[in-house]
Amino acid sequence: MSNCTDQNSAGARTGASAADPAKVPGVLAAMADHFTAHDPNGLLAPDATGICASAEVYRATGRSAFGGASALLNAVMDVLPAAAPRSTRAQYAKALRREAVSRGWRAGQ
Fold first, then answer.
1. Is 60 exceeded by the pLDDT of residue 106?
2. Three-class SS state of 108
C-alpha cells in the first residue's frame, strides 16, 4: 500500500531504468575531470565518489533537484567502478573514464 510520504509512486522506476541513460556517461566523465583537476595525487576519500556524483548530477540536471536528479544519481551510483584500496583520485579518474567510454562517451562531448 502506498503512503503519502513515499518518494516513488507504486510501480515507479528507480536507478538506471528511470534516468536518461544518455546522461550517465557524461556524469562519469565530469567526475573523472574533477578528480583529475583537484588534488589528483591525493587518496580517494571513502565519501568522495558520492559527493562528486551528487555535484555532477546537479550540474547535469540544470542545477536543480528536479528534472530527474534523483533517478540520474541512482543510475550513476549503480555503475560507479569499485575503487582499489588506497587509490589516488587520478587512478580512480581513469576507471571512471573507462566506464564512461564503455557506455558510449567520447572525448569532447
1. yes
2. coil
